[in-house]
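User: Hey, my collaborator sent me this sequence without any context and asked if I could get a structure. I don't really work with proteins. Can you help?
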Amino acid sequence: MKLKNRIQSFFSYFKKEKKEEKKKENVIFFDLTSSINNRKKNQKKDRKKIDHNPITKIKIKESALEKIFAISKATDLECYCLLLGYDDIVEDIFVPLQEANGVHVTVDGKNIMEIKEILKTTKYKVLGWAHSHCTFSVFFSSTDMQNQNTLLIQTQNYTKDYTKKWVYGMTVNHKREMIGYVSTQYADNFSIEMKKADICIIKDIKNEDEKIKIKKIYQTMIHQKLNMLKY
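Assistant: No problem. I've predicted the 3D structure and written it out in structure-token form, which is a compact way to encode the shape of the chain:
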């Protein structure tokens, strides 16, 4: 009887130990599950923080805009430039070697590489691009939209919280009409949205003489950089 009692008490103790271990396992499993669930909840919260409102403003210095108008007005061929600046403000433009006719412009990749040295010395970034439509109305064609989204992939412009990536695009004509679009890419799903933008001009030209000087320099420059497109 004593032995039997001892065996029974041993098994009852063993069962008790097993129950305690199971409880601990359940607690550990529960902690792990709750940790994973919390992480998923936090990820969902983080996703909710990304607002899907596209960027709809192009900020550009008056001097940079005058340079774009100058190269446009100087020729009856389409022309192209890159928009340069700090943060989200266009401060200057870069005019590469290019070939064009009245409705089309092409830029060889090796000619864009000239910009590397400029970016290195000025600390500018490529914020976007602009092109002219000569005497035609200002609009964005499907090709323009495709080109802009390609530039979006190639550039590194982010909002301060890194939830959105963006790039500017502009079209101007001889009448000094202009239109702007911004392509916005969202960090959570990588979708791209292109929207018409308000062009906000930041005054930095002091007088008319300065404007005339810009016009002369950039009208001369475009004739040096632009060749007739050969088919």
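In plain terms: Strands lie at 57-61, 80-86, 89-94, 98-100, 105-106, 125-132, 164-172, 178-186, 192-202, 226-228. You can pass these tokens on to your collaborator as they are.
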